[in-house]
Amino acid sequence: xxxxxxxxxxKMNTLPAEGVELAKSVxxxxxxxxxxxxxxxxxxFTHISEVVKALEGSDIAVGAQDCATEAKGAYTGEVAAQMIxxxxxxxxILGHSERRQYYGETSETLNKKMAQAYANGLTPIYCxxxxxxxxxxxxxxxxxxxxxxxxxxxxxxxxxANLVIAYEPVWAIGTGKTATAEQAQEIHAYIRxxxxxxxxxxxxxCAILYGGSCKPSNAAEIFAKEDVDGGLIGGAALxxxxxxxxxxxF
Length: 250
Ligand code: PGA
Prior knowledge:
By secondary structure, this protein is of the alpha/beta class. It has eleven helices and eight strands.
């Protein structure tokens, strides 16, 4: 059985005290959602520690939104996977389209970040997805295939068994436009096929999340699709009520 996952990507939002409040509100309402749903929250680095404390005793996991390409040393401003793991994170989002677009992340950087994540026991949530021009040109399948081949294909079988993929069409992120459930299923099934071409039956066990304007009103329809195993949630993860309601979409 594949894991059902609802992960909140807080991006560069909330001050520490607000993040702690948000985390506590998620804990308070967690009991209303099926225990079969695995919740993850990914706060900014600055309040990971306090959020981990606020979640103590709950089954909600914490992830970071990025990690450095190197293990440690003279890399001003960077945050190492080892540091993130030491704070209590279990996950790290890698290759988010905002990082690819605004910070020039390439497959080359992402291969290094993935290696750091695994070396420190973190599960990567590896993001793939096409932009609007690519979708309109019918290139979306090729784009996600390349993003997978150039990075995920370098993993060992053991590493692959500990990977989450997030499909996030760039045109749907923060825009209010959501892929239809059919569009999501079509490309999720394709992603699973690309994974199976390399990893065989293990691809059946890999959770593939949908991201991009996922909200309480559309989550159930999208999550009902066979190859959609949950969501990576941006805006709607900043309100505990909405984040939990998305979890009820299963
Ligand atoms: P959104 O962001 O839900 O605000 O569209 C999703 C994401 O970028 O992870």
